[in-house]
Amino acid sequence: MKKILVYAFFFSFLNIIYGQKNSSFADNIRIKYKIPELAYAVVSSDSILEIQALGYQRYNSSYKAKIDDKFRLGSITKTVTSYIATLLVKEGKIKWDTKFFDLYPELKAKSNGAFYNFTLKDFITLRAPISTWSYNNETPTQKEIKGNNQQQRYEFIRWFFKQNVNISEKQDLYWSNPSYVAAGLMLEKVTGKTYETLVTELGKSLNIDFQFGQPNLKDENQPWGHDENLNPEKPSLNYKLNWLSSAGNINVSLPDYCKFVQMHLQGLQGKSKLLTKEEFYNMHYGFSEFSFGWNSETNKNTLKEYSFHNGNPGTFLTKVYLCAAIDKAFIIFSNVQSEEADKGLMLLLDQLQKKYGG
């Protein structure tokens, strides 16, 4: 019994030492690569092995980072949308081969014929050959898109599906936010609930507080995003972000997103009561390069398979890398978007992977 206690103490001691070393390394990265706030975590399916929040919520301020600070996920939102879609397919409320215009036939006549046969699966796996669009596009304008949040998304897709496809050549993937906007509308239609409600209900089931938009809009004592010149983004409502809610508008704290990722690790081990191990595997690795909300690749150094996603919503950077083979996931959040900051985050990711066997 004493030997077991000694081993347990020694293992905890090593975790503390490694955590301190990684924290120091991360803070040096934060300073060198001009990142106001940097938060990261390493989790297994049943434990948080390391978690830290370093720096400041705003550049050149005294507002210190807190572990429960919220960050905009950007495109990592797609991992949440795809999970909700997978649950609804499992429940029989929609099929992967359900076509968009099966649910919205009133939009078909005035839409570009190239969109007619696209399905939920095409949208969620980014196989629908449609053009890109993001919040920095000039059209459509706010005057063209009216109504409440859900109506605005409907009006946006009505507008988008009238446009030319504008795809010059066939690709394996089409990195288009409107694919996920369309998918979100399909989920709203079959449930009779808004996307925000679906996400909130999922959050309650997982004890996660999902929110939307800039974190500082609801609470100025949350992190402010920064551009590449370290200009802080003041609290404001960007109406175009609402149009992209199911593609990239969720904000959440690091501890809460850890819960979401741990749920995926558990599912990949066959420990989910909602989805089978095979269904989780298909979500992460069912297709080459990008499956149902998750990219995938093989680490060149370790030859281990990873699923991952990155978010870059303008003033934040977020990364999640998950390796089922070692039952570990690495999550890194920052409140600045720049090429320099991204280099720093990748260095930290590499450091954490080496420390934890990835």
In spatial order, strands of the major sheet run 2-1-9-8-7-6
Taking Cα atoms only, what radius of gyration do you get, to the nearest Å?
21 Å
Number of strands: 9
Helix-residue proportion: 40-55%
Overall mean pLDDT stands at 92
Number of helices: 13
Reading the helices and strands in chain order gives HEEEHHHHHHEHHHEHHEEEEH
Give the amount of beta strand, in percent: 5-15%
Provide structural commentary.
The two termini are 32 Å apart. The protein has helices at residues 2-32, 77-90, 100-103, 120-124, 149-160, 177-191, 195-206, 215-218, 239-243, 245-248, 254-268, 277-285, 339-355; strands at 37-43, 48-55, 70-72, 211-212, 250-253, 295-298, 305-311, 317-323, 328-334. 41% of the residues lie in helices and 14% in strands. It is α+β, with helices and mostly antiparallel strands and 358 residues long.
